[in-house]
């Protein structure tokens, strides 16, 4: 009869150990696994990517249900082991299941540390540890606006970025002056904070939380200095504690974690422990790479294969926030007996530091350019002597660094881990290249999962490829528009054009999307690109749009909507005002507000009231919700103002009537000022028109939002017809070359003003662009009218549908 091995904890470390064991000795044991969570084994690391919208829950499963079946593993999910009877060698769960073991592995992970604050038990106060927490945040963001993340470490910052992507306002509360102080020095930390602030994160530094405010649900946070901030959601990310209660109650020796020796043996015979619950040589790890190393040693031990044991790990980390490159490894802090080589380039926003002690690199911090990360990490782990060539560690000699990445790969043993997040060794990657024909980082990702999580090992995976195939044999890697494809925006649009693809399904099939359903990132993008290339042939895929664009109204924090009717150029009439007032009364609208774009906003409307209200209003949609032309703001201009040189109202109305309903990569705002005093603030708009003597100045690429940008002058023209021609050509060029979700301010910086000017310079080119934009504009219909008229669309606004509609994305 086979011996019985039982694993407590269906998480990353324990299951990885079982995977290794199955590889070494597939038939040695009867295997039983218990997991408290109701899911099969998944990649916890990627919860940050799910929250940020870069991955779906399906993408993060490491071993699905069938894997357990195929390997004859008995899996009990939703079962927490509550007792280990070490005398009778039995485990018992809270659900009443009792199973005997010959060998027992405890891999219960960690518990998030929840600050024991008054009010911490209120609704809306959560940790970020598992799928449930991630789902709670996604759901909360649909209804609420303000999030406070307590803790500016890796987890807190990744949670904050995800919540920003979910359109929440996010404040990060940190107890120290510098965020990520456990991984970064002050210079790198300050650079990181500046970048995250630019992305829209708000920081409350040197703040100690005193209490959580609110009745049943959280409404705010108070600090010990008396300051209070509003909060609809509080995420605590202030560290973790090894989950040791079960071991403790079973008489197993614990300290901070479950104490193990180099062979992962606990104080009780036949009981082992791996993962975050473990304390080895006084260290409890909180990153997966060491846990995989522990698992590999334990697997050998259980398989009866000789092993030198586990001797501890040096760790490296990379923050998984898009647009930010931060890397930290080893002992990064300066000490009395350390010296450092530093490179700082304020122009490019790059900072690199290698800490050296006794001739060896013992730690590194990189910001802005982390391409040296894996090379430095290998040097730290190998303990290579760099005496006399310390500067070359970062600066290189004659262009080359002390040792190239490929040299370092050559010196690595096959067992050494290249991808810490997924536990992939150099040997496994070499095998995938030699036996499965992998020749790019993406091939390796598909075959072995290496580089698929934090991405920090990409340079090292690249070095392994170069080491095996030579520089010419490696296919270059590019980032796809989302995790479902390796194709970039231009390639996808080109394929849509040349292969005449007209639906998202076709694109995903023909271009071999890895996830055949797409994800929340690519689905709306494809819908836009298809509509842009094939305005007549492509049928708008309503289900691919975000909730606001599906419902043609802006969802508010309490789940109600706001209604903004179109008012061309910000001009209204007493008749329309009376009508709006009556409708506001009829539907008991709680708030009527004039917007920044000179429109009237009716806030707090129930979803089921929307179609009726639109019908009563009988006005076009103001599109206050869409990736389209929002408003054309105007000043009073020459009609009334004594400084006005041109009719800015008339010009604004013409522009708005012409481009309303146009789908654009991101929202577009316009303004027209009647003279250079610029009362309509045209120079912070996507397209701003400013009247001058004898003509108009056309300004482009402005943005008054979080990433403030003043416009660039595109050109000066004389007539209103020219304004319409240039604006049409400009918008169409943006539509055809912009990335989905890219505002004109970002697009202009990417493609360059000179490129745009060159594209619009000749009248012939302008007219061709105008002809294409007109073709699209001719097809646009008012969405409110359409919903009022079509019963099947109207139905989706009935109360029963609310839940179903909201779970689509
Ligand atoms: C959002 C997020 C992002 C992260 N990003 C990174 C990253 O980029 N890089 C990195 O290296 N690390 C990262 N980490 C940390 C990494 O996920 C952990 O180090 C790793 O998951 C720990 O593995 P483990 O198996 O020890 O514990 P876990 O993965 O927590 O697994 C333990 C499992 O045991 C179950 N369990 C506990 N007690 C019992 C019981 N009595 N009976 C049955 N089941 C039980 C738990 O429910 C859990 O499912 C991240 C963590 C989070 C939360
Ligand atoms: N990219 C990655 O590698 C990654 C991402 C997420 C999580 N993780 C891991 O998950 C675990 C949990 O992450 P974490 O960031 O919670 O842990 P952490 O211990 O790394 O950071 C917690 C942070 O919270 C701060 N803090 C403590 N008390 C506070 C208070 N009262 N108010 C405000 N700030 C306070 C600390 O100064 C610290 O910087 C860690 O092991 C981490 O390594 C890793
Ligand atoms: S921009 Fe000039 S024309 Fe327009 S309101 Fe201001 S001062 Fe008058
Ligand atoms: S180390 Fe994170 S993906 Fe490889």
TrEMBL record:
<keyword id="KW-0479">Metal-binding</keyword>
<dbReference type="InterPro" id="IPR036136">
    <property type="entry name" value="Nit/Sulf_reduc_fer-like_dom_sf"/>
</dbReference>
<protein>
    <submittedName>
        <fullName>Nitrite reductase large subunit NirB</fullName>
    </submittedName>
</protein>
<dbReference type="InterPro" id="IPR006067">
    <property type="entry name" value="NO2/SO3_Rdtase_4Fe4S_dom"/>
</dbReference>
<dbReference type="InterPro" id="IPR006066">
    <property type="entry name" value="NO2/SO3_Rdtase_FeS/sirohaem_BS"/>
</dbReference>
<dbReference type="InterPro" id="IPR052034">
    <property type="entry name" value="NasD-like"/>
</dbReference>
<dbReference type="InterPro" id="IPR016156">
    <property type="entry name" value="FAD/NAD-linked_Rdtase_dimer_sf"/>
</dbReference>
<dbReference type="InterPro" id="IPR045854">
    <property type="entry name" value="NO2/SO3_Rdtase_4Fe4S_sf"/>
</dbReference>
<dbReference type="InterPro" id="IPR017121">
    <property type="entry name" value="Nitrite_Rdtase_lsu"/>
</dbReference>
<keyword id="KW-0349">Heme</keyword>
<dbReference type="InterPro" id="IPR036188">
    <property type="entry name" value="FAD/NAD-bd_sf"/>
</dbReference>
<feature type="domain" description="BFD-like [2Fe-2S]-binding">
    <location>
        <begin position="417"/>
        <end position="465"/>
    </location>
</feature>
<keyword id="KW-0411">Iron-sulfur</keyword>
<comment type="similarity">
    <text>Belongs to the nitrite and sulfite reductase 4Fe-4S domain family.</text>
</comment>
<keyword id="KW-0004">4Fe-4S</keyword>
<keyword id="KW-0285">Flavoprotein</keyword>
<dbReference type="Pfam" id="PF07992">
    <property type="entry name" value="Pyr_redox_2"/>
</dbReference>
<dbReference type="InterPro" id="IPR041854">
    <property type="entry name" value="BFD-like_2Fe2S-bd_dom_sf"/>
</dbReference>
<dbReference type="Pfam" id="PF18267">
    <property type="entry name" value="Rubredoxin_C"/>
</dbReference>
<dbReference type="InterPro" id="IPR005117">
    <property type="entry name" value="NiRdtase/SiRdtase_haem-b_fer"/>
</dbReference>
<keyword id="KW-0408">Iron</keyword>
<dbReference type="InterPro" id="IPR023753">
    <property type="entry name" value="FAD/NAD-binding_dom"/>
</dbReference>
<dbReference type="InterPro" id="IPR012744">
    <property type="entry name" value="Nitri_red_NirB"/>
</dbReference>
<keyword id="KW-0001">2Fe-2S</keyword>
<comment type="pathway">
    <text>Nitrogen metabolism; nitrate reduction (assimilation).</text>
</comment>
<dbReference type="Pfam" id="PF04324">
    <property type="entry name" value="Fer2_BFD"/>
</dbReference>
<dbReference type="Pfam" id="PF01077">
    <property type="entry name" value="NIR_SIR"/>
</dbReference>
<feature type="domain" description="NADH-rubredoxin oxidoreductase C-terminal">
    <location>
        <begin position="316"/>
        <end position="383"/>
    </location>
</feature>
<dbReference type="Pfam" id="PF03460">
    <property type="entry name" value="NIR_SIR_ferr"/>
</dbReference>
<feature type="domain" description="BFD-like [2Fe-2S]-binding">
    <location>
        <begin position="481"/>
        <end position="530"/>
    </location>
</feature>
<dbReference type="InterPro" id="IPR041575">
    <property type="entry name" value="Rubredoxin_C"/>
</dbReference>
<feature type="domain" description="Nitrite/sulphite reductase 4Fe-4S">
    <location>
        <begin position="626"/>
        <end position="763"/>
    </location>
</feature>
<feature type="domain" description="FAD/NAD(P)-binding">
    <location>
        <begin position="3"/>
        <end position="278"/>
    </location>
</feature>
<dbReference type="InterPro" id="IPR007419">
    <property type="entry name" value="BFD-like_2Fe2S-bd_dom"/>
</dbReference>
<keyword id="KW-0534">Nitrate assimilation</keyword>
<keyword id="KW-0274">FAD</keyword>
<feature type="domain" description="Nitrite/Sulfite reductase ferredoxin-like">
    <location>
        <begin position="556"/>
        <end position="618"/>
    </location>
</feature>
<keyword id="KW-0560">Oxidoreductase</keyword>
């Amino acid at each position: 009869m086979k011996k019985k091995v039982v694993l407590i904890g269906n998480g990353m470390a324990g299951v990885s150990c079982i995977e290794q064991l199955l590889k070494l000795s597939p038939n040695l044991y009867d295997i039983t696994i218990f997991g408290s969570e109701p899911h099969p084994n998944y990649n916890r690391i990627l919860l940050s990517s799910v929250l940020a919208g870069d991955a779906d829950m399906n993408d993060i499963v490491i071993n699905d249900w069938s894997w357990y079946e195929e390997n004859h593993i008995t899996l009990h999910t939703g079962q927490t082991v509550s007792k280990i009877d070490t005398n009778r060698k039995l485990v018992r769960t809270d659900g009443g299941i009792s199973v005997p073991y010959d060998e027992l592995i405890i891999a219960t992970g960690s518990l998030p540390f929840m600050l024991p604050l008054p009010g911490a038990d209120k609704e809306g106060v959560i940790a970020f540890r598992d799928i449930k927490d991630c789902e709670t945040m996604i759901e909360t963001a649909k209804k609420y606006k303000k999030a406070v993340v307590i803790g500016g470490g890796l987890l807190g910052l990744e949670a904050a970025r995800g919540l920003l992507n979910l359109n929440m306002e996010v404040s990060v509360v940190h107890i120290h002056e510098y965020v990520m102080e456990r991984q970064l020095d002050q210079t790198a930390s300050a650079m990181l904070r500046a970048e995250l602030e630019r992305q829209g994160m708000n920081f409350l530094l040197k703040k100690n939380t005193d209490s959580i405010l609110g009745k049943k649900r959280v409404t705010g946070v108070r600090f010990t200095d008396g300051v209070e901030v509003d909060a609809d959601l509080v995420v605590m990310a202030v560290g973790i504690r090894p989950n040791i209660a079960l071991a403790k109650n079973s008489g197993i020796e614990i300290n901070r974690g479950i104490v193990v020796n180099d062979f992962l043996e606990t104080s009780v015979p036949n009981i082992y422990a791996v993962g975050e619950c473990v304390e080895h040589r006084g260290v409890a790890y909180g990153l997966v790479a060491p846990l995989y190393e522990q698992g590999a040693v334990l697997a050998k031990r259980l398989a009866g294969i000789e092993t030198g044991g586990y001797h501890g790990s040096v760790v490296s980390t990379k923050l998984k926030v898009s647009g930010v490159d931060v890397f930290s490894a080893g002992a990064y802090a300066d000490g009395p007996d350390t010296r450092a080589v530093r490179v700082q380039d304020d122009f490019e926003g790059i900072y690199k530091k290698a800490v050296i002690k006794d001739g060896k690199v013992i730690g590194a911090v990189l910001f802005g350019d982390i391409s040296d990360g894996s090379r430095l990490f290998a040097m730290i782990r190998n303990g290579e002597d760099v005496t006399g060539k310390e500067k070359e560690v970062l600066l290189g000699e004659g262009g080359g660094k002390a040792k190239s990445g490929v040299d370092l790969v050559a010196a690595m043993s096959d067992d050494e881990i290249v991808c810490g997040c997924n536990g992939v060794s150099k040997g496994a990657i070499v095998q995938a290249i030699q036996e499965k024909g992998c020749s790019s980082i993406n091939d390796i990702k598909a075959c072995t999962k290496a580089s698929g999580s934090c991405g920090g090992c990409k340079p090292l995976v690249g070095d392994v490829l170069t080491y095996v195939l030579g520089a010419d044999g490696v296919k270059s890697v590019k980032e796809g528009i989302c995790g479902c494809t390796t194709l970039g925006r231009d390639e996808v649009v080109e394929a849509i054009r040349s292969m005449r693809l007209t639906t998202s399904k076709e694109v995903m099939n023909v271009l071999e999307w890895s996830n055949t359903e797409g994800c929340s990132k690519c689905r709306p993008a494809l819908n836009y690109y298809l509509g842009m290339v094939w305005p007549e042939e492509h049928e708008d895929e309503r289900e691919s749009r975000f909730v606001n664009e599906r419902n043609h109204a802006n969802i508010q924090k309490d789940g109600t909507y706001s209604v903004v009717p179109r008012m061309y150029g910000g001009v209204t009439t007493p008749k329309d005002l009376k009508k709006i007032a009556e409708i506001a009364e009829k539907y008991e609208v709680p708030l009527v507000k004039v917007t920044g774009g000179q429109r009237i906003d009716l806030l707090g409307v129930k979803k089921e009231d929307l179609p009726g209200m639109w019908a009563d209003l009988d006005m076009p949609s103001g599109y206050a919700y869409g990736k389209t032309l929002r408003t054309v703001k105007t000043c009073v201009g020459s009609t009334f103002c004594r400084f006005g040189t041109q009719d800015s109202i008339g010009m604004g109305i013409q522009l708005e009537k012409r481009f309303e309903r146009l789908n654009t990569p991101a929202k577009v705002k316009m303004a027209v000022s009647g003279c250079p005093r610029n009362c309509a603030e045209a120079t912070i708009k996507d397209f701003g028109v400013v009247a001058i003597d004898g003509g108009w100045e056309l300004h482009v690429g402005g943005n008054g939002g979080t990433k403030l940008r003043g416009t660039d002058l595109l050109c000066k023209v004389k007539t209103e017809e020219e304004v319409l021609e240039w604006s049409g050509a400009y918008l169409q060029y943006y539509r055809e070359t912009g990335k989905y979700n890219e505002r004109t301010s970002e697009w202009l910086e990417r493609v360059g003003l000179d490129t745009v000017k060159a594209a619009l310079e000749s009248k012939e080119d302008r007219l061709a662009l105008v002809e294409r934009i007109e073709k699209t504009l001719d097809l646009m219909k008012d969405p409110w009218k359409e919903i009022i008229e079509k019963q099947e669309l109207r139905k989706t606004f009935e109360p029963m549908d609310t839940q179903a509609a909201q779970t689509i994305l």
